[in-house]
Amino acid sequence: MTSFEEAGTEETVTCLHMTFYHPCQKDKMMFRRLNFCKREQVRADEMAKFGRDSNVCHYNLMDTRVSRIQFSLQFYRKLNSSEFCFEIKNMSKRTKLIVDQTELGYLNKVDLPLKCIICFGDYQILAEIQEGESMDYFETHLHLAEVPVLQERCLPSLQPIPENGISSSWFPSQGKSPMEIDENES
């Protein structure tokens, strides 16, 4: 037998891609302590913490308006399933965390969708989960956005925003009901 035949099966690793945006990034450099464009391993039993305090948080945001610990991410496996997920928890007493349209107060938590936008203050983070099989660790891969991720994600709809500033495309289930159309109608 060759060493190739005896080698263990390579397992894939779950990777959380996060694209960060803040309108003042060029002037204030609040993301200067983040390691962009390089994957980092995080042990499955550790919590990934984002915030201002470098003694507690591995992912530091250099901004006095950010809480010491803004939010945390916990990697876990669903009960009776092989599916791996992330749970996001708001750790800030001052600032609400918004995950897509779900608003989280202090210590509230929710499962992170496969693709979502996380917002707090002027910060926008596009989070995308690339699924894997490893139970020992996951990876993070951070990116920096030049344009707002909300703008980038909402471009395909090209729907006008009403004067009240609330786009109905952000709340797809509100005020809409299925409509039956005859296939001969145009």
Automatic annotation (TrEMBL):
What keywords tag this UniProt record? Cytoplasm, Immunity, Innate immunity
Taxonomically, the superkingdom here is: Eukaryota
Q: What residue spans carry the Polar residues bias annotation?
A: 166-176
> Which InterPro entries has this protein been placed in?
FHA_dom (IPR000253), SMAD_FHA_dom_sf (IPR008984), TIFA (IPR033621)
Q: Name one GO cellular component term.
A: cytoplasm
Q: Which Pfam families match?
A: FHA (PF00498)
Q: Does the keyword Cytoplasm apply?
A: yes
Q: Where in the cell is it found?
A: Cytoplasm
Q: Does the keyword Cytoplasm apply?
A: yes
The GO annotation for biological process reads: innate immune response; positive regulation of canonical NF-kappaB signal transduction
**Region (Disordered) location:** 166-186
Every copy of the FHA domain together lies at 49-121
Family of this protein: Belongs to the TIFA family.
Query: Know the name of this protein?
Result: TRAF-interacting protein with FHA domain-containing protein A
| Gene behind the chain | Tifa
